[in-house]
């Protein structure tokens, strides 16, 4: 019996061996390595002695880390909500079989094809108080016009949000549109016969049916938020001061600029923990929950 199981679909199992080894060696191995050396006092090289959770105590006692976490939470909540809402609204509009639908989809999805570095640089030029939109409109006569968000500590997160939404909303729109196109037309006919308003049909019937698409969108967007780095470096470089600092930048600076590998790996481990908090409920809802219902 065991031999039959091992020989069943043997070519596919052999083909999967390299990927399995990659997962075990690279992902699992590097994760264990990261967690272990985050509990050492390593500086320039990972050669320090084991000190337990001291690095984590120092991490959460550092104002820069706390500011970066607060910034990420604020940016993440706004980005997740606005990306889902705007993406869904755009998908609903396109689902009305509008003219030039393919062209509109391409235009909306094009920013996602650009890297965050390019997106950050483009929006840095636009928001530059001297050379960007503010300077252009002042030269045209609107001398009181102000748009200096990347230089304003209170508004810099909104500048990041605008650039992030421009980059990712199109991708969310495509996911939502795929979910909408999967809704049976008979459901719409039944809703119209029952006299249910269109907006109520979307909220009460269509959205619950798109649960899988919504969960996938939340996981993809959430994972991208946790790893936010390129956009911040290109647009604000964490400034003014540390008002737009994020955990990924904190980790990079401590590991490669600050010469404190232990502290950087402690921050990386906390980011990994955040990703797991996002992924585990998703995996349970997609696989574990289904097994219990059947």
UniProtKB/TrEMBL annotation:
A Pfam family reported for this protein in Swiss-Prot or TrEMBL: BPD_transp_1
Subcellular location: Cell membrane
Keyword Cytoplasm recorded: no
Source domain of life: Bacteria
Gene Ontology process terms (BP): transmembrane transport
Membrane topology of the entry: Multi-pass membrane protein
The UniProt record lists the keyword Magnesium: no
Ranges for domain ABC transmembrane type-1: 69-284
Record family assignment: Belongs to the binding-protein-dependent transport system permease family.
Name the record gives this protein: Sugar ABC transporter permease
């Amino acid at each position: 019996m065991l031999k039959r199981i091992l020989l069943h679909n043997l070519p596919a199992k052999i083909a999967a061996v390299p990927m399995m080894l990659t997962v075990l060696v690279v992902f699992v191995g590097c994760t264990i390595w990261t967690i272990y050396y985050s509990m050492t006092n390593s500086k320039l090289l990972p050669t320090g002695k084991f000190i337990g959770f001291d690095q984590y105590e120092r991490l959460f006692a550092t104002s820069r880390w706390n500011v970066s976490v607060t910034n990420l939470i604020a940016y993440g909540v706004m980005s997740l909500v606005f990306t889902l809402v705007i993406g869904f609204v755009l998908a609903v509009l396109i689902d009305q079989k509008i003219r030039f639908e393919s062209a509109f989809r391409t235009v909306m999805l094009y920013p996602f094809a650009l890297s965050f570095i390019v997106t950050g640089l483009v929006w840095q030029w636009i928001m530059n108080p001297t050379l960007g939109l503010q300077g252009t409109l002042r030269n045209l006569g609107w001398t009181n016009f102000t748009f200096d968000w990347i230089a304003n500590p209170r508004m810099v997160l909104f500048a990041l949000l605008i650039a992030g939404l421009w980059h990712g909303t199109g991708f969310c729109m495509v996911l939502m549109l795929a979910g909408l196109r999967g809704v049976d037309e008979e459901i719409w006919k039944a809703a119209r016969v029952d006299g249910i308003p269109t907006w109520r049909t979307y909220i009460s019937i269509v959205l619950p049916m798109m649960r899988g698409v919504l969960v996938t969108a939340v996981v993809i967007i959430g994972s991208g938020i946790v790893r936010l780095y390129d956009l911040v470096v290109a647009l604000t470089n964490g400034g003014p001061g540390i008002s737009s600092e994020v955990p990924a930048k904190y980790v990079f600076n401590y590991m490669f600029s600050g010469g404190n590998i232990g502290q950087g790996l402690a921050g990386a481990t906390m980011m990994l923990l955040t990703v797991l908090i996002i992924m585990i409920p998703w995996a349970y809802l997609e696989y574990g929950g289904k097994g219990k219902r059947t």
